[in-house]
User: Which sequence fits this backbone?
């Protein structure tokens, strides 16, 4: 006779996933109850809400897209590669994003939105006083040397020779640019209604993007730090002088 050890009452014995159509699953959980009870060995089925499954799947797809863009560039990124990396069926991926352009646009916008939230959180910890301008520039430099900027750059280059893609990319870039401009104005304490200060903010963002572009080719971190040190001095002098002038 063979004896087996039963789990304690209420202990989960086995969890198995079974397919429930494209992109859906049913979780079957076997809960062992007290021996002799009416519920012994009852198998219960729980479902993850459809909206939650869809949201999680879309997020995996978008994150995998950005990773592919950073690692392989626009030409090396394919919907097949993205779906494989995300662990999503090809059919499910096409259902939500019918083309490569649609997938990449959604991915860049999604990650840019998350990065915008991170920038807002970082802004709350910016120091006050003389070191604030330099800290803001460092935060902007981190933004344009991260994966969001790299992925967006691949998208911009591809859109240059693709009118259809450009038509979709241009509004996205404008939204991202306006958000970053507003954040920079607030962090530097600049007066956006003053044309001179507005141009200084824009020059700051152009400088940051240029440094970010240089980083995609070589490690330019040492020179970047020196440039940011110098530009912080220029900004402090210019902004403070304008604000103190009656």
Assistant:
């Amino acid at each position: 006779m063979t004896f087996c050890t039963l789990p304690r009452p209420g202990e989960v014995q086995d969890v198995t996933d079974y397919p429930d159509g494209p992109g859906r699953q049913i979780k079957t959980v076997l809960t062992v109850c007290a021996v002799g009870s009416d519920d012994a060995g009852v198998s219960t089925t729980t479902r993850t809400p459809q909206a939650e499954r869809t949201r999680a799947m879309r997020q995996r797809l978008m994150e995998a897209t950005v990773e592919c863009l950073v690692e392989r560039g626009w030409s090396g990124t394919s919907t097949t590669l993205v779906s494989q990396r995300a662990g999503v069926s090809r059919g499910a991926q096409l259902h939500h994003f019918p083309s490569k352009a649609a997938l990449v646009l959604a991915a860049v916008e999604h990650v840019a939105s998350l990065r915008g939230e991170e920038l807002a959180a970082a802004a709350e910890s910016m120091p006050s006083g003389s070191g604030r301008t330099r800290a803001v520039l460092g935060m902007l430099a981190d933004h344009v040397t991260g994966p969001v900027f790299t992925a967006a750059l691949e998208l911009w280059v591809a859109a240059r020779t693709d009118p259809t893609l450009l038509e979709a990319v241009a509004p996205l870039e404008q939204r991202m640019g306006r958000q970053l401009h507003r954040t920079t104005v607030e962090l530097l304490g600049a007066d956006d209604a003053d044309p001179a200060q507005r141009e200084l903010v824009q020059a700051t963002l152009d400088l940051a993007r240029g440094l970010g572009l240089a980083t995609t080719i070589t490690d330019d971190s040492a020179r970047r730090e020196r440039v940011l040190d110098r530009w912080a001095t220029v900004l402090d002098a210019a902004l403070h002088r304008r604000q103190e002038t009656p």
Residues 71 and 90 are 21 Å apart (CA to CA). The first helix runs from residue 50 to 76. The mean pLDDT is 79. DSSP finds nine helices and three strands in the chain.
